[in-house]
Amino acid sequence: MTNVPPPAGWYLDPRTGAANRWWDGTAWTETYTPLAPVGTPQLQRDGKSMSTTYLLAIFLGGFGIHRFYLGRPVSALILLALTLVAVTTGTLSESGSSPLFYAVWIWTIVDLFLIPGMVRSTRNRA
Hints:
4 helices; membrane; alpha+beta; three-stranded antiparallel sheet; 2 domains; single chain
């Protein structure tokens, strides 16, 4: 039975356990990085920002921009088309409004409650 060393990467220093140390695949180097303090949140480099998503939904919700931002282009295009049809039919009607505006508003309000789950799922995909 052969003993295969682990691949190159950062590992907990086997001597002190107080820092990460670079293993080059064959031997330990003298390159160290400090450990993150316990309770320190790690940055989500590939994930989307919850606050950015909420701002996009609040200010541009009817255009589906927040859904484009979260990588959901099909539903974003449907929401955008619904908004454009609502604006067009509202402009052409005598009352100046369209019942489709209610659908856009309801969709946007429901999205405000769905945003945490949508952001979580994009972070899990990344």
